[in-house]
Here is the input.
Amino acid sequence: MAEAQPSKKRGGHAYGRRNLQISNTAEEGTLCLFSGHSLGRFSSHSMRYDSHQACVRCVASAREGRLSLDINRLMAKWRPKALKFWSQVDIGDPSECWDWNGCINPRTKQPQFAWRRHGISTSTQHHPQRVAMWLTWGDLGYTGVKTTCGNKYCCNPFHLIPQNIGVFVDQESYVESFDLACELHTLKQQVQEFVIEEAMKEQAKIQDKAEADLRAQLLLNPDVGFAERYEAVMTDMLAGRHINQIHPDDPSLFKDLIDNQELDDENPTNEF
Here is the structure.
């Protein structure tokens, strides 16, 4: 079986240290995105090749052509990030291009995804193809990646090839793989659930803000009686949504103190 080769079409894109061969030496580095790749059970580090900061275990898996769409293989803290990424990708069949629907850099016109990865890259923006490689082929650091389709917006991991690490793949076996078909179906379901949950959270925020604005108008309205204001304040405090509970450190109208000394001439309090 020959080593997988990228497309020579114009428009193909390569990233990272694509012209640099991966080194033969490894060092202790940042913990891998995938669970079970730490140095020990309680370790917060993984072994990484010092040339590309690629996880040693992920490189070994990629060289064998092991590709996975299973989000549950990631560490728990990275699963929401992965779902957010895939929610911005038009996921289709394994043979189709999965176009990027997320952010496009207005200056360079290149697609990008925000992710700060300490110890791996100083950049906070990464090309979606690299992120797709991290989440499927493995945490390969700043290993270069090319496509077999020549589409720079394609995030289909079946069309991505990590560069200069010796990846040997059989595209037909991927398309016919029952396990990958199940993982793809599960991924689509997880992304749909994530999108619905995020939409519900956003709707709840909008509703809470509208209610807060309505209560603020009620409290600031001089025509509203004391009983109604008192009821509104107590309801907010019991629900934990009073402004002093939500923003305890922010100055606000409700927290401005009145200096009684300024009122002594008109309303002296010394007599009482």
Observations:
- Residues 1-16, 253-272 have pLDDT under 50 and may be disordered.
- Residues 28 and 169 are 29 Å apart (CA to CA).
- Residues 178-220 form the longest helix (43 residues).
- The longest strand covers residues 26-30.
